[in-house]
Amino acid sequence: MWPFSELPQNVATLRVGCGRQALEAKNPDTRKQAVVALSLVAAQFLSPLKAMLQDKDVEVRLATVVSLTEVRSQQSIAALRAALDDEVPEVSFAAAKALWGLHDTAGKQALLAILAGDSRSSSKFFSKQKRDALRMIHSPRVMLLFAVHKGIGFVPVPYMGLGVASMQTLLTDTGVSGRAAAALMLATEKDQATLEALRDALSDTDWSVRAAAVHALALRRDPRLRTDLAPLLDDQNEAVRLRAAAAYLRLAGQARTPDKAGARHE
User: Fold this and answer.
1) Residues 115/197, Cβ–Cβ less than 8 Å
2) 94 neighbors 124 (Cβ within 8 angstroms)
3) What is the pTM for the complete model shown?
4) pLDDT per residue as tens digits for the range 117-149
5) Is the residue at 11 inside a domain?
């Protein structure tokens, strides 16, 4: 047993030694767990964490993105911005979500690009078998939990009136695209560019994007947006149609106290 006076130094030595071994392990699960564990002391291990963004395993890189969000520094934000260019869409999407959660403008711009279809959010060119083998399956549920954890507008309490059941259904549906998740994440943004992007998404060919855009616009508290939602009352997709009806009623109920920020006059 170590003498008490020597304990801190010896523990630090063990921590660094074991951490480096785990980060260099052949087993990707070990490397992933090491990255996850380092989130507890991410600021002290920023350099090795940044290096793990180059790991050949996708899940390790995804875990690294999440761990880097624990360090609110220019270095970590720069690393996350670099991850926006990752060759695997799941990683770049995760970096966009992380930057948005840190209120970095690059994250918001990346989400707007994803919503507009300018970049991919999932690797459609991989077969499911290959994706399983590479452990690249991305669960939209993680996005909701991340948003709740960061306290950025999606609070899962019924009386908050955010339609959490609608959100959760969209985010946990395996058929829902990452672009739909981007629309939901942008729901709390009040600027004109985001409003127009959400309006455009109402006519998207993907039903989940239309449904998410309806949900996002319903949260803006502007009854004038009913004009935009009206055509979707006849949408061919039931999920979109029912959400449009509910959103229309929600906005109609707010007609006496409209939130005029960012909405156009009809």
Assistant:
1) yes
2) no
3) 0.66
4) 765 555 543 333 343 333 333 334 444 444 444
5) no
Mean pLDDT of 149-161: 42
Rounded-to-integer distance, Cα 37 and Cα 18, Å: 11
Spatial separation of the C-alpha atoms in residues 184 and 167, rounded to whole Å: 8
Both tokens assigned to 24? 């260099």
Is residue 13 assigned to a domain? no
User: Counting beta carbons within 10 angstroms of the beta carbon of residue 113, is it exposed (0 to 12), middle (13 to 18) or buried (19 or more)?
Assistant: middle
Q: How many CB atoms lie within 10 A of CB 15?
A: 15
Task: Give the integer Cα–Cα distance in Å for 107 and 11.
Answer: 37
How far is residue 138's CA from residue 255's CA, in Å, rounded to a whole number? 39
Q: Which of these three, 103, 132, 161, is where a domain ends?
A: 132
Are 187 and 153 in contact, with CB atoms under 8 Å apart? yes
Domain count, the chain: 2
Select from 85, 100, 132 the last residue of a domain.
132
> What span, in angstroms and rounded, lies between the C-alpha atoms of 225 and 18?
56
With respect to residue 14, please indicate whether it lies within any of the assigned structural domains.
no
User: Do residues 53 and 161 both lie within one domain?
Assistant: no
The answer to whether 48 and 23 are in contact (CB under 8 A) is: yes
Are 110 and 175 contained in the same domain? Answer: no
The domain that holds 58 is classified in CATH as 1.25.10.10
User: In which domain, by residue range, is 220 found?
Assistant: 139-266
Whether residues 158 and 69 share a domain: the answer is: no
Is residue 144 domain-shared with residue 264, that is, in the same domain? yes
Other CB atoms closer than 10 Å to residue 215's CB: what's the count?
A: 24
Burial class (CB in 10 A: 0-12, 13-18, 19+), 167: buried
